[in-house]
Amino acid sequence: MSWIRRSFRKSQAEKALDKELQFHLDRQLADYVAAGMQPDEARHRARLEFGTLDTVKEEVRDTRWETRLENVFRDFRYTARSLRKDRRFAIVAVFALALGIGASTVAFSAFYNLLFNGFAARDSNRLVVFSLQNAEAGGLPELNLTPLGGSLSDVDAIRGQGQVFDGIVGYHRGITLRRDGNDIHQVNATGVTSNAFDFYGVPPLLGRGITAADGMAKSSLVFVMGYKTWKGEFHSDPAILGTSFLVDDIPRTLVGIMPPRFQAYGALVQIWTPIIGSSDTKGAEPAMSVDTMMARLKPGMTLEKASAALDVIVKSLAKNRPNDFPKHFSARVLSATDFMMGPYGIGSAGGPKTRHFDIKRMLYALLAGPSFCS
């Protein structure tokens, strides 16, 4: 704190510096006189070795914090005067800085949500998504990849490959209407297989997640809500747990609120509902299929080996339902990160048919752009 006090008592600090320097000079002079030199010669010798007082003062001032702070304020005043002289340049400079900072913030936020928040799950580095590559489609091969969907029996058939995959889930995304009293809200909803929440291994913030019993026939119809929806629309009210809402005119009970980082099965998802394994669902929708399948690889399993095993299973399924698959295709697994950042899986609720721009290239350009310009 002494440098702060010195900044407000500059004249006193200068006087103290003069006294200290003069003390050292006089002491050096006295040493030379005591050694037998004449006073004039001793004074000349001391000044040669000690240097000029002004030079020493400048060196001491440069080491002080208050001098550096004063230089910053001086530069700031000079910059302000320069910008005031040319206001058009000042406006362009401020706009360019704001645009650059905003773009960098958006890029970082997108990367953070996709790479961290999107997979806040147990063993997220082993998460993969099943895809089909149509060999007959034109264009780049990576653009011919579509998520592998199917019925719940298809999910069970692939789940039987226990040597490769350590858990498989299926889900489908869409837009539903949620009625809250007289208010109707359009929400992004994802139907998930009953093991989906156990698969991710993230405990709910309040209540419970979807369980295996919720996917059985004649079970009570429930749903789980995302944190942002709970906070934004219901003001973080814990009393809404157990409340019945109409979801697409079907009464469902809210059983859980997920934590902020849980963005599974689509970053924009607001509610999750269980996929019922039978058409007997108390007047609800009939048994549903999934448009995307996700799995966790066994420890030590590579993407190449998993793709080969998946290709054999899916082609055996295609023999019984040739109209549901392309004539010439190959099945493969993608890491969950590549899927989310690919041309179709950005976490949108538009479904697998929707083609998105390549967000990976866009984010790379935004992050790498400043380095090219520097």
Short overview:
With about 375 residues, the protein is of the alpha+beta class. It has 12 helices and 11 strands.
- Oligomer state equals single chain
The largest beta-sheet arranges its strands as 3-4-9-6-8-7
**General shape:** elongated
Number of strands: 11
Total number of helical segments?
Answer: 12
Structural class: alpha+beta
**Computed CA radius of gyration, to the nearest angstrom:** 35 Å
Overall tally of domains: 2
Helix and strand string, N-terminal first?
HHHHHHEEHEEHEEHEEEEHEHH
Main sheet summary: 6 strands, mixed, barrel
Q: Share of helix among residues?
A: 40-55%
Average per-residue pLDDT, rounded, comes to 77
The parts where pLDDT drops under 50 for at least 5 residues are 279-287, 344-357, 370-374
- Report strand %: 15-25%
Q: Roughly how many Å apart are the termini? A: 38 Å
